[in-house]
Design brief:
single chain; mainly alpha; Methyltransferase, Methionine Synthase (B12-binding Domains), Chain A, domain 1; Serine Threonine Protein Phosphatase 5, Tetratricopeptide repeat
């Protein structure tokens, strides 16, 4: 397994942009080995100094995330990774978890992550589920998505707030009146207005 990781480090380090190759190999490995082996491989790969190999590992965690221990590791440890690319894959892997479990069945986990202490954990949800109303459950219950996103409009992290604004902007394309109604209830706090400007882009800024 160590030799395989070394080979991945050599091959992946040449890839400077994108993530599709890492995702493809992760999917193949997940389908080729027993889950215990995949878990061991993912844990070992995540220890790599090569960020591309860690990206691959986080894809594997997503495929394994119906295991509560794996999901907890993603929430508490992967969210602390300093490389922004890892955080992008964490968002994708959180969506993978919801897809596997079911979006409605994942509401408790979604809410838990949205209230997590680590900003990257919160953003994994706001960003990972975009476009929220393209996902099962939320496509029939758009207000549930709008409510959850709006609750983070005063988030302490600008990183999270921007994701919230963009996610609401996405939703406004299909559900403009629902987003308008929500935005009308907002105040004039500076952070709030920043999110407002993003969220209202397609429906006008004077609501």
């Amino acid at each position: 397994m160590q030799k395989y990781i070394k080979r991945l480090e050599h091959d992946f380090s040449e890839i400077k942009n994108g993530f599709k190759e890492f995702e493809k190999i992760a999917q193949l490995d997940f389908e080729s080995y027993e889950e215990k082996e995949v878990y061991a491989l993912a844990k070992l790969a995540y220890q790599s100094e090569v960020y591309q190999v860690r990206m691959y590992a986080v894809f594997l965690f997503g495929y394994l995330s119906d295991d509560k221990a794996v999901l907890h590791f993603m929430k508490e440890e992967v969210s602390k990774d300093k490389n922004w690319r890892i955080q992008e894959i964490l968002a994708k892997s959180f969506d993978e978890h919801c897809k596997r479990v079911g979006y409605e069945q994942s509401l408790d986990v979604i809410d838990e992550w949205l209230h997590a202490e680590q900003p990257n954990t919160r953003r994994a949800v706001t960003e990972g589920l975009r476009i929220w109303t393209s996902r099962p459950y939320f496509n029939e219950n758009p207000q549930e998505a709008i409510k959850r996103l709006s609750n983070l409009r005063l988030d302490s992290s600008e990183y999270v707030r921007k994701s919230v604004g963009n996610a609401l902007k996405d939703i406004s394309k299909k559900f403009p009146e629902l987003v308008k109604s929500e935005l009308k209830t907002w105040g004039t706090n500076k952070a709030e207005r920043q999110v407002y400007q993003l969220a209202s882009k397609f429906i006008g800024t004077h609501i």
